[in-house]
Amino acid sequence: MNVKSLVLFAFSAILAMVVYFLLNPSYEKSLEAKYYYEIGDYKKAYERANEAFSLDIYNRMASTIMAQSKIAMKYKKYIDEAKQYLEEINEIVNQESISDADRAKIKLMSEIMVKRYIKLAPSVVTDESLVQEARKYYKNFEKLLEKVNN
User: Fold this and answer.
1) What are the angstrom distances between the C-alpha of 87 and each of 43, 93, 94, 108?
2) Which of 33, 38, 83, 35 is nearest to 56 (CA)?
3) pLDDT digits (tens, 9 = 90+) for 77-130
4) Which residues contact 109 (CB under 8 A, 6 or more apart)?
5) Cβ–Cβ under 8 Å, residues 82 and 120
6) Are 131 and 122 in contact (CB under 8 A)?
7) In the 8-state DSSP scheme, what is residue 148?
8) Cα–Cα distance measured from residue 125 to residue 29, given in angstroms and rounded to the nearest whole number
């Protein structure tokens, strides 16, 4: 077998794999899921990956995107709740005086968010911006909890 025929065979094999990958409905949905994951629509990414996985349980791409989307959705939910809690806390802090009940409310919200952050478990491929943003809110709630406890 000469080099030319070996290169032609390798190119043909790669082309066949690409065509299979693009025409297989499971992998097509996996590519859609990957797209949605990359643009930050984790719910749609999970749904598409789940559809792809149900078509082919050996589709590792779908399995990976499902797992990553699930983790990303947990981070997104944490961030959204953190923003909401901080808005409520800012409303309390902007009042002329802070009652003991308000202090207790701030403490409770902070404790909840600190404990929820500890339960988050990033993986190697979790969107780093989500991890950083969640960490930022976690640090804010830690500081608030420290101030309220003193």
Assistant:
1) 25, 10, 11, 15
2) 33
3) 999 999 999 999 989 888 888 888 888 999 999 999 999 999 988 777 788 899
4) 85, 88, 89, 141
5) no
6) yes
7) H
8) 20
What is the C-alpha separation between 73 and 47, in angstroms, rounded?
A: 12
Structure tokens at 15: 């082309």
Q: What is the pLDDT of residues 10-61, one digit of tens each?
A: 878 888 777 776 677 898 899 999 999 999 999 999 999 999 999 999 999 9
Query: Residues with Cβ < 8 Å from 66, sequence gap 6 or more?
Result: 33, 46, 49, 50, 53
Amino acid identity for residue 54 in this structure: S
Which residues make Cβ contacts (< 8 Å) with residue 43, sequence separation at least 6? 69, 73
Does residue 8 contact residue 16 with C-beta atoms inside 8 Å?
A: no
- CA 2 to CA 65: how far, in whole Å? 41
Report the alpha-carbon distance of residue 74 to residue 130 in Å, rounded: 10
pLDDT score at 1: 61
Which residues, at least 6 apart from 18, have a Cβ–Cβ distance to it below 8 Å?
none
